[in-house]
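Protein 1 of 2
SEQ + STRUCT:
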Amino acid sequence: MKKTMVMTREDFKTIKSNSRLRNYSMNALMLLFMVLFTSMASAQKSKVLDAFFKYGIDSSVLNPEKTKRPDNFAFDFKQTIITSASEAVTIAKFDPSNAGVEQWTVVSIDGKSPSKSATNSFRKNQSKASSTPPTDDTSYKIEKETPDQLVISYKVETASLTKENAFVKDCRFYMTINLKTKKMEQIQTLNEKPVKVNILTADKFDIVVKYKWNDEARQYVPVNENLNMEAKFIGQATNIKTITEYSNYTKK
Protein backbone atom coordinates (compact mmCIF):
# COMPACT_ATOMS: atom_id res chain seq x y z
CA MET A 1 0.00 0.00 0.00
CA LYS A 2 2.84 2.33 0.87
CA LYS A 3 4.48 1.50 -2.45
CA THR A 4 1.32 2.54 -4.31
CA MET A 5 1.23 5.88 -2.48
CA VAL A 6 4.86 6.53 -3.32
CA MET A 7 4.23 5.84 -7.01
CA THR A 8 1.24 8.17 -7.01
CA ARG A 9 3.30 10.98 -5.54
CA GLU A 10 6.03 10.38 -8.09
CA ASP A 11 3.45 10.46 -10.86
CA PHE A 12 2.12 13.74 -9.50
CA LYS A 13 5.61 15.21 -9.40
CA THR A 14 6.18 14.11 -12.99
CA ILE A 15 2.91 15.66 -14.17
CA LYS A 16 3.71 18.89 -12.31
CA SER A 17 7.19 18.96 -13.81
CA ASN A 18 5.82 18.37 -17.32
CA SER A 19 3.25 21.14 -16.84
CA ARG A 20 5.98 23.57 -15.81
CA LEU A 21 8.04 22.53 -18.81
CA ARG A 22 5.11 23.13 -21.17
CA ASN A 23 4.46 26.56 -19.63
CA TYR A 24 8.14 27.41 -19.93
CA SER A 25 8.15 26.31 -23.59
CA MET A 26 5.05 28.37 -24.38
CA ASN A 27 6.49 31.44 -22.69
CA ALA A 28 9.77 30.96 -24.54
CA LEU A 29 7.93 30.68 -27.86
CA MET A 30 5.90 33.81 -27.13
CA LEU A 31 9.08 35.69 -26.19
CA LEU A 32 10.77 34.48 -29.38
CA PHE A 33 7.78 35.58 -31.46
CA MET A 34 7.83 39.02 -29.85
CA VAL A 35 11.56 39.37 -30.48
CA LEU A 36 11.18 38.31 -34.13
CA PHE A 37 8.19 40.64 -34.62
CA THR A 38 10.04 43.57 -33.08
CA SER A 39 13.12 42.81 -35.16
CA MET A 40 11.05 42.65 -38.36
CA ALA A 41 9.33 45.94 -37.54
CA SER A 42 12.66 47.54 -36.74
CA ALA A 43 14.23 46.22 -39.96
CA GLN A 44 11.38 47.46 -42.16
CA LYS A 45 11.34 50.94 -40.68
CA SER A 46 15.13 51.21 -40.47
CA LYS A 47 15.40 50.91 -44.27
CA VAL A 48 13.16 53.95 -44.62
CA LEU A 49 15.00 55.86 -41.88
CA ASP A 50 18.32 55.06 -43.56
CA ALA A 51 16.98 56.55 -46.81
CA PHE A 52 15.79 59.65 -44.91
CA PHE A 53 19.22 60.07 -43.34
CA LYS A 54 20.87 59.61 -46.73
CA TYR A 55 18.87 62.48 -48.26
CA GLY A 56 18.65 64.70 -45.16
CA ILE A 57 14.88 64.31 -44.67
CA ASP A 58 13.25 64.99 -41.31
CA SER A 59 11.89 61.61 -40.14
CA SER A 60 9.16 63.29 -38.05
CA VAL A 61 7.09 63.32 -41.25
CA LEU A 62 6.32 59.67 -40.45
CA ASN A 63 4.36 60.85 -37.41
CA PRO A 64 0.67 61.04 -38.48
CA GLU A 65 0.22 64.04 -36.18
CA LYS A 66 2.49 66.03 -38.52
CA THR A 67 0.09 65.66 -41.47
CA LYS A 68 -3.33 66.22 -39.93
CA ARG A 69 -5.17 69.53 -40.04
CA PRO A 70 -3.93 71.73 -37.15
CA ASP A 71 -6.61 72.21 -34.50
CA ASN A 72 -5.66 75.80 -33.70
CA PHE A 73 -5.75 77.21 -37.23
CA ALA A 74 -8.70 78.70 -39.09
CA PHE A 75 -8.98 77.99 -42.81
CA ASP A 76 -11.23 78.29 -45.85
CA PHE A 77 -12.85 75.18 -47.29
CA LYS A 78 -14.22 74.40 -50.75
CA GLN A 79 -15.54 70.99 -51.73
CA THR A 80 -16.87 69.83 -55.09
CA ILE A 81 -18.67 66.48 -55.27
CA ILE A 82 -19.22 65.08 -58.76
CA THR A 83 -21.32 62.04 -59.63
CA SER A 84 -22.79 60.85 -62.92
CA ALA A 85 -26.05 62.58 -62.02
CA SER A 86 -25.02 65.77 -60.23
CA GLU A 87 -22.37 68.23 -59.12
CA ALA A 88 -22.44 70.11 -55.82
CA VAL A 89 -20.10 72.82 -54.53
CA THR A 90 -19.89 73.71 -50.85
CA ILE A 91 -17.93 76.68 -49.53
CA ALA A 92 -17.31 76.90 -45.81
CA LYS A 93 -14.99 78.31 -43.15
CA PHE A 94 -13.49 76.71 -40.07
CA ASP A 95 -12.67 78.76 -36.97
CA PRO A 96 -11.41 76.87 -33.88
CA SER A 97 -12.06 79.89 -31.65
CA ASN A 98 -15.79 79.17 -31.89
CA ALA A 99 -17.45 76.50 -29.76
CA GLY A 100 -18.72 73.09 -30.87
CA VAL A 101 -20.49 72.89 -34.22
CA GLU A 102 -20.21 76.69 -34.54
CA GLN A 103 -16.58 76.18 -35.56
CA TRP A 104 -17.94 75.45 -39.05
CA THR A 105 -19.73 78.17 -41.01
CA VAL A 106 -21.28 77.15 -44.32
CA VAL A 107 -21.01 80.13 -46.66
CA SER A 108 -22.85 78.70 -49.66
CA ILE A 109 -24.00 75.52 -51.40
CA ASP A 110 -24.10 75.72 -55.19
CA GLY A 111 -23.79 79.51 -54.95
CA LYS A 112 -26.82 79.91 -52.69
CA SER A 113 -27.22 80.50 -48.97
CA PRO A 114 -27.51 77.11 -47.24
CA SER A 115 -30.64 75.99 -45.47
CA LYS A 116 -30.47 75.18 -41.76
CA SER A 117 -30.82 71.45 -42.45
CA ALA A 118 -28.03 71.55 -45.05
CA THR A 119 -25.76 73.37 -42.59
CA ASN A 120 -26.53 70.87 -39.83
CA SER A 121 -25.88 67.98 -42.21
CA PHE A 122 -22.53 69.43 -43.26
CA ARG A 123 -21.47 70.05 -39.66
CA LYS A 124 -22.49 66.52 -38.68
CA ASN A 125 -20.42 65.02 -41.49
CA GLN A 126 -17.39 67.10 -40.51
CA SER A 127 -17.68 66.04 -36.88
CA LYS A 128 -17.41 62.40 -38.00
CA ALA A 129 -13.87 62.95 -39.22
CA SER A 130 -11.84 60.19 -37.56
CA SER A 131 -8.46 60.64 -35.93
CA THR A 132 -5.35 59.71 -37.87
CA PRO A 133 -4.47 56.06 -37.07
CA PRO A 134 -0.85 55.16 -36.23
CA THR A 135 1.24 53.41 -38.88
CA ASP A 136 2.20 49.73 -38.78
CA ASP A 137 6.00 49.71 -38.44
CA THR A 138 6.22 46.26 -40.07
CA SER A 139 4.61 47.51 -43.28
CA TYR A 140 7.11 50.15 -44.44
CA LYS A 141 8.53 49.81 -47.96
CA ILE A 142 10.61 51.94 -50.29
CA GLU A 143 8.58 51.93 -53.50
CA LYS A 144 10.59 54.35 -55.66
CA GLU A 145 13.91 56.14 -55.42
CA THR A 146 15.05 58.55 -58.16
CA PRO A 147 17.23 61.69 -58.16
CA ASP A 148 14.07 63.75 -57.71
CA GLN A 149 11.71 61.63 -55.65
CA LEU A 150 11.51 59.15 -52.81
CA VAL A 151 8.24 57.22 -52.48
CA ILE A 152 7.62 55.07 -49.42
CA SER A 153 4.53 53.07 -48.54
CA TYR A 154 2.95 51.73 -45.37
CA LYS A 155 -0.27 50.50 -43.81
CA VAL A 156 -1.96 51.52 -40.56
CA GLU A 157 -2.52 49.58 -37.36
CA THR A 158 -5.87 47.81 -37.67
CA ALA A 159 -6.53 47.88 -33.92
CA SER A 160 -6.85 51.68 -34.05
CA LEU A 161 -9.56 51.73 -36.73
CA THR A 162 -13.23 52.46 -36.05
CA LYS A 163 -16.38 51.17 -37.69
CA GLU A 164 -16.41 54.19 -40.01
CA ASN A 165 -12.87 53.76 -41.32
CA ALA A 166 -12.43 49.98 -40.93
CA PHE A 167 -12.05 49.69 -44.72
CA VAL A 168 -8.65 51.40 -44.44
CA LYS A 169 -7.16 48.10 -43.29
CA ASP A 170 -7.32 47.01 -46.94
CA CYS A 171 -5.61 50.16 -48.20
CA ARG A 172 -1.97 51.13 -48.59
CA PHE A 173 -0.54 54.64 -48.20
CA TYR A 174 2.10 56.08 -50.54
CA MET A 175 4.09 59.09 -49.36
CA THR A 176 5.99 61.12 -51.97
CA ILE A 177 8.96 63.24 -50.89
CA ASN A 178 10.66 65.81 -53.13
CA LEU A 179 14.40 65.19 -52.81
CA LYS A 180 15.21 68.66 -54.14
CA THR A 181 13.26 70.53 -51.45
CA LYS A 182 13.48 67.75 -48.81
CA LYS A 183 9.74 68.18 -48.24
CA MET A 184 6.83 65.77 -48.38
CA GLU A 185 4.46 66.62 -51.24
CA GLN A 186 1.57 64.17 -51.08
CA ILE A 187 0.11 61.03 -49.57
CA GLN A 188 -1.95 58.72 -51.75
CA THR A 189 -4.30 56.08 -50.34
CA LEU A 190 -5.09 53.12 -52.58
CA ASN A 191 -7.24 50.08 -51.87
CA GLU A 192 -5.61 46.68 -52.35
CA LYS A 193 -8.94 44.92 -52.84
CA PRO A 194 -12.64 45.94 -52.99
CA VAL A 195 -13.62 47.82 -49.84
CA LYS A 196 -16.90 48.63 -48.10
CA VAL A 197 -17.27 52.38 -47.66
CA ASN A 198 -20.51 53.06 -45.78
CA ILE A 199 -23.22 51.56 -48.03
CA LEU A 200 -21.00 51.37 -51.11
CA THR A 201 -18.68 48.61 -52.29
CA ALA A 202 -15.72 50.29 -53.98
CA ASP A 203 -13.60 48.47 -56.54
CA LYS A 204 -11.39 51.56 -56.69
CA PHE A 205 -10.71 53.87 -53.77
CA ASP A 206 -8.04 56.45 -54.50
CA ILE A 207 -7.32 59.57 -52.45
CA VAL A 208 -4.43 61.94 -53.15
CA VAL A 209 -3.81 64.60 -50.51
CA LYS A 210 -1.31 67.31 -51.41
CA TYR A 211 0.47 69.11 -48.57
CA LYS A 212 2.39 72.29 -47.92
CA TRP A 213 4.79 72.95 -45.07
CA ASN A 214 3.50 75.65 -42.70
CA ASP A 215 6.30 77.34 -40.75
CA GLU A 216 3.96 78.83 -38.16
CA ALA A 217 2.25 75.52 -37.43
CA ARG A 218 5.56 73.63 -37.70
CA GLN A 219 3.83 70.89 -39.63
CA TYR A 220 2.42 69.95 -43.03
CA VAL A 221 -1.09 71.16 -43.79
CA PRO A 222 -3.38 69.76 -46.50
CA VAL A 223 -4.11 72.09 -49.41
CA ASN A 224 -5.88 69.77 -51.84
CA GLU A 225 -7.61 66.42 -51.48
CA ASN A 226 -8.75 64.49 -54.55
CA LEU A 227 -10.94 61.39 -54.11
CA ASN A 228 -11.84 59.06 -56.97
CA MET A 229 -14.11 56.17 -56.11
CA GLU A 230 -15.55 53.58 -58.48
CA ALA A 231 -18.25 51.83 -56.50
CA LYS A 232 -21.47 49.87 -56.69
CA PHE A 233 -24.72 50.12 -54.79
CA ILE A 234 -27.13 47.21 -55.20
CA GLY A 235 -25.23 46.24 -58.35
CA GLN A 236 -25.53 49.72 -59.86
CA ALA A 237 -22.30 51.57 -60.77
CA THR A 238 -21.83 54.68 -58.65
CA ASN A 239 -18.70 56.68 -59.43
CA ILE A 240 -17.83 59.60 -57.18
CA LYS A 241 -15.19 62.29 -57.49
CA THR A 242 -14.59 64.70 -54.62
CA ILE A 243 -12.22 67.67 -54.77
CA THR A 244 -11.55 69.44 -51.47
CA GLU A 245 -9.46 72.62 -51.23
CA TYR A 246 -8.04 74.14 -48.02
CA SER A 247 -6.61 77.67 -48.00
CA ASN A 248 -5.84 80.78 -45.93
CA TYR A 249 -4.58 79.01 -42.82
CA THR A 250 -4.51 81.46 -39.92
CA LYS A 251 -3.43 80.74 -36.37
CA LYS A 252 -6.03 81.49 -33.68
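Protein 2 of 2
SEQ + STRUCT:
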Amino acid sequence: MSGCSTKESDINKAIQVAKEYKTLELEASKPAQNTEVSMEQIRNKEESVKPLMTSVFFEQNAASRTYQRAFAISQYKQSEIVVSDLEFTKKNQSDDEIELSYKGTMSFAKEQIALDGIITLLKENDAWKVNNDVYNMEALIKILDEMISK
Protein backbone atom coordinates (compact mmCIF):
# COMPACT_ATOMS: atom_id res chain seq x y z
CA MET A 1 0.00 0.00 0.00
CA SER A 2 2.83 2.41 0.76
CA GLY A 3 4.08 2.02 -2.85
CA CYS A 4 0.87 3.57 -4.14
CA SER A 5 1.05 6.50 -1.75
CA THR A 6 4.71 7.07 -2.64
CA LYS A 7 3.87 7.14 -6.37
CA GLU A 8 0.96 9.50 -5.67
CA SER A 9 3.22 11.69 -3.52
CA ASP A 10 5.80 11.75 -6.35
CA ILE A 11 3.11 12.82 -8.84
CA ASN A 12 1.97 15.62 -6.54
CA LYS A 13 5.53 16.84 -6.02
CA ALA A 14 6.27 16.67 -9.76
CA ILE A 15 3.10 18.62 -10.56
CA GLN A 16 4.06 21.27 -7.99
CA VAL A 17 7.51 21.67 -9.61
CA ALA A 18 6.05 21.68 -13.14
CA LYS A 19 3.47 24.33 -12.23
CA GLU A 20 6.07 26.57 -10.59
CA TYR A 21 8.40 26.15 -13.58
CA LYS A 22 5.74 27.02 -16.21
CA THR A 23 4.62 30.06 -14.22
CA LEU A 24 8.17 31.36 -13.74
CA GLU A 25 9.09 30.63 -17.37
CA LEU A 26 6.15 32.44 -18.98
CA GLU A 27 5.00 35.19 -16.61
CA ALA A 28 6.35 38.73 -16.78
CA SER A 29 5.44 42.07 -15.21
CA LYS A 30 4.29 44.97 -17.32
CA PRO A 31 7.46 46.85 -18.30
CA ALA A 32 7.96 50.57 -17.89
CA GLN A 33 7.41 52.35 -21.19
CA ASN A 34 10.45 52.79 -23.44
CA THR A 35 12.68 50.47 -21.44
CA GLU A 36 14.81 47.63 -22.69
CA VAL A 37 14.83 44.15 -21.19
CA SER A 38 17.87 44.14 -18.92
CA MET A 39 20.39 41.35 -18.53
CA GLU A 40 19.65 41.53 -14.80
CA GLN A 41 15.97 40.68 -15.41
CA ILE A 42 16.96 37.70 -17.55
CA ARG A 43 19.56 36.53 -15.01
CA ASN A 44 17.00 36.83 -12.18
CA LYS A 45 14.50 34.72 -14.13
CA GLU A 46 17.20 32.16 -14.95
CA GLU A 47 18.24 31.97 -11.29
CA SER A 48 14.62 31.47 -10.19
CA VAL A 49 13.96 28.58 -12.62
CA LYS A 50 17.39 26.92 -12.37
CA PRO A 51 16.70 24.97 -9.13
CA LEU A 52 13.59 23.46 -10.76
CA MET A 53 15.48 22.02 -13.73
CA THR A 54 18.16 19.48 -14.54
CA SER A 55 21.43 21.21 -15.36
CA VAL A 56 21.40 19.95 -18.97
CA PHE A 57 17.88 21.27 -19.62
CA PHE A 58 18.73 24.59 -17.97
CA GLU A 59 21.84 25.05 -20.14
CA GLN A 60 19.89 24.24 -23.32
CA ASN A 61 17.19 26.78 -22.45
CA ALA A 62 19.63 29.48 -21.35
CA ALA A 63 21.57 29.04 -24.61
CA SER A 64 18.39 29.30 -26.71
CA ARG A 65 17.26 32.42 -24.80
CA THR A 66 14.03 30.77 -23.65
CA TYR A 67 13.79 33.06 -20.62
CA GLN A 68 13.88 36.25 -22.71
CA ARG A 69 10.64 35.42 -24.56
CA ALA A 70 8.19 36.48 -21.85
CA PHE A 71 10.03 39.77 -21.29
CA ALA A 72 10.15 40.49 -25.03
CA ILE A 73 6.43 39.79 -25.48
CA SER A 74 5.45 41.82 -22.41
CA GLN A 75 7.50 44.72 -23.70
CA TYR A 76 6.13 44.46 -27.24
CA LYS A 77 2.52 44.21 -26.00
CA GLN A 78 3.13 46.65 -23.10
CA SER A 79 1.31 44.23 -20.84
CA GLU A 80 1.95 41.88 -17.98
CA ILE A 81 1.82 38.19 -18.84
CA VAL A 82 -0.15 35.87 -16.58
CA VAL A 83 -0.33 32.08 -16.70
CA SER A 84 -3.55 30.58 -15.34
CA ASP A 85 -5.66 27.44 -15.28
CA LEU A 86 -2.63 25.12 -15.43
CA GLU A 87 -3.81 21.53 -15.21
CA PHE A 88 -1.46 18.54 -15.27
CA THR A 89 -2.28 14.90 -15.98
CA LYS A 90 0.04 11.93 -15.51
CA LYS A 91 1.00 10.26 -18.79
CA ASN A 92 3.83 7.95 -17.67
CA GLN A 93 5.66 7.27 -14.43
CA SER A 94 8.67 5.25 -13.32
CA ASP A 95 10.72 5.48 -10.14
CA ASP A 96 12.90 8.30 -11.47
CA GLU A 97 10.88 9.85 -14.32
CA ILE A 98 7.40 11.35 -14.62
CA GLU A 99 5.81 12.59 -17.82
CA LEU A 100 2.86 14.96 -17.48
CA SER A 101 0.60 16.44 -20.11
CA TYR A 102 -0.67 19.93 -19.37
CA LYS A 103 -3.03 22.64 -20.49
CA GLY A 104 -3.31 26.23 -19.37
CA THR A 105 -3.80 29.81 -20.49
CA MET A 106 -1.26 32.55 -21.09
CA SER A 107 -2.86 36.01 -21.05
CA PHE A 108 -1.48 39.41 -22.05
CA ALA A 109 -2.95 42.65 -23.35
CA LYS A 110 -6.33 41.50 -24.69
CA GLU A 111 -5.00 38.22 -26.00
CA GLN A 112 -4.96 34.68 -24.68
CA ILE A 113 -2.95 31.70 -25.82
CA ALA A 114 -4.07 28.20 -24.90
CA LEU A 115 -1.04 26.24 -23.70
CA ASP A 116 -0.85 22.54 -24.49
CA GLY A 117 2.24 20.48 -23.77
CA ILE A 118 4.13 17.59 -22.26
CA ILE A 119 6.67 18.12 -19.51
CA THR A 120 9.11 15.46 -18.30
CA LEU A 121 10.64 15.49 -14.84
CA LEU A 122 13.54 13.41 -13.53
CA LYS A 123 14.26 12.58 -9.90
CA GLU A 124 17.66 13.97 -8.90
CA ASN A 125 18.85 13.73 -5.28
CA ASP A 126 15.28 13.04 -4.12
CA ALA A 127 13.91 16.13 -5.89
CA TRP A 128 11.85 16.28 -9.09
CA LYS A 129 13.41 18.48 -11.79
CA VAL A 130 12.15 19.49 -15.22
CA ASN A 131 14.17 17.74 -17.92
CA ASN A 132 12.09 18.51 -21.01
CA ASP A 133 9.12 20.67 -21.95
CA VAL A 134 7.49 20.50 -25.36
CA TYR A 135 4.48 22.75 -25.92
CA ASN A 136 2.69 24.72 -28.60
CA MET A 137 5.03 27.70 -28.67
CA GLU A 138 4.15 28.53 -32.29
CA ALA A 139 1.86 31.35 -31.16
CA LEU A 140 4.68 32.85 -29.08
CA ILE A 141 7.13 32.54 -31.96
CA LYS A 142 4.61 34.26 -34.24
CA ILE A 143 4.42 37.24 -31.86
CA LEU A 144 8.22 37.39 -31.58
CA ASP A 145 8.54 37.25 -35.40
CA GLU A 146 5.94 40.03 -35.69
CA MET A 147 7.91 42.10 -33.19
CA ILE A 148 11.19 41.57 -35.04
CA SER A 149 9.70 42.49 -38.42
CA LYS A 150 8.48 45.91 -37.17
